[in-house]
Specification:
two-stranded antiparallel ribbon, GPCR_Rhodpsn, GPC_Orphan_Receptors, 353 residues, transmembrane, disulfide bond, globular, GPCR_Rhodpsn_7TM, mainly alpha, Rhopdopsin 7-helix transmembrane proteins
């Protein structure tokens, strides 16, 4: 192993550790807090967590073994099973992110009719589609024997070498797979979250106008207080932009290099560096480690649940249903309708406040 392979192995090991720990914490919070289970977004987060956990215990360790041994890990049948999971779990997780963005768009743009527009039945139907969509692509790839160990990525996944006989069919399949998963999800994320940002900025501007009118009336207000109000307005607008950028940015940074490498591999005869292939695969894996923080652990209810569980484990204070209920009631509105952990619906206050 050279220095690059050692660094890649350490990176994959770190991603496995963070992904397992953070997703298990999300799963514990979901199982322990009844209020989280009642919320429609909780179903999408549960599905995303399931995909991330399964990816962390099946595909990531096998990639680590491939990097360490510099060879094919396991038998051909076993590698095909893992390759099936790679396509299925990656596709499923992307579509789950798209479903979450649609849910939060409805929550912010249509807060008064949210519960009539997005119900548990609708969430189950959406999840059913993500599973059927993912199963179709992964099943076709496996039945056509297009999955196997790919040395460029040091993992069991779609393999060009096994699909040489298919030629055009494999190219069409790969382009369709990435178009209907990565590209579709990216478009949905951009459209929904940019609309959310537009609504949030509108309400930020409305509150800013009210604040400025109030400051004008308070002629005797101290200059430091006036400056603090102006600074808070600026921070509010910046937080809104940063949070929306996080949702879209993490998706683009983690998945774009891998998808582009896949497409270039189909049409470009120039060999791709194995170090770049492994790095792009590691970036795709890192999305499983970042998702718990982006979608769950930084939100109000999850933070409170983690704090209560930590207090119980450390025996700082008793954890009972009444205390948990009080925390849930305090953050129920924030987590049902917010776009991010501090977004408020238009009927209350704007994003970032």
């Amino acid at each position: 192993m050279d220095a690059a392979d050692i660094a890649a192995s350490v990176l994959v090991l770190g991603i496995i550790f963070v992904s397992l720990l953070s997703n298990v914490v999300v799963l514990i919070c979901f199982l322990y807090n009844p209020e989280i289970r009642k919320q429609v977004p909780g179903l999408f987060i549960l599905n995303l967590t399931f995909c991330n956990l399964l990816l962390s215990v099946s595909n990531m360790p096998l990639t680590l073994v491939g990097l360490v041994t510099m060879g094919h890990p396991g038998g051909s049948v076993f590698c095909q099973i893992v390759g099936f999971l790679d396509t299925f779990l990656t596709t499923n997780s992307m579509l789950s992110m798209a479903a979450l963005s649609i849910d939060r768009w409805v929550a912010v743009v249509f807060p008064l009719s949210y519960h009539s527009r997005i119900r548990h039945r609708d969430a189950v139907i959406a999840l059913g589609y993500t599973w059927i969509h993912s199963l179709c692509f992964s099943t076709v790839a496996t039945c056509r024997s297009w999955v196997g160990y790919h040395h460029l990525y040091a993992s069991c996944t779609l393999c060009n070498a096994r699909a040489k006989a298919s030629g055009t069919q494999f190219i069409i399949f790969t382009v369709a797979l990435h178009s209907l998963t990565f590209l579709l999800t990216l478009i949905v994320l951009c459209v929904t979250y940019l609309k959310v940002l537009k609504v949030a900025r509108f309400h930020c501007k409305r509150i800013d106008v009210i604040t400025m009118q109030t400051l004008v009336l308070l002629v005797d207000i101290h200059p430091s207080v006036r400056q603090k109000c102006l600074d808070e307005q600026k921070r509010r607008r910046q937080r809104a932009t940063k949070k929306i950028s996080t949702f879209i940015g993490t998706f683009v940074v983690c998945f774009t290099p891998y998808v582009i490498t896949r497409i270039v591999e189909l049409f470009c005869p120039v060999p791709i560096s194995p170090h770049w292939g492994v790095l792009s695969k590691c970036l795709a894996y890192s999305k499983a480690a970042s998702d718990p923080f982006v979608y769950s652990l930084l939100r109000h209810q999850y933070r409170k649940t983690c704090s209560l569980l930590a207090n119980k484990v450390l025996k700082r204070s008793p954890l009972n249903s009444s205390s948990l209920r009080m925390e849930n009631n305090a953050g129920r509105s924030d987590n049902n309708l917010n776009t991010t952990n501090n977004i408020q619906p238009p009927t209350n206050k704007p994003l970032g406040q």
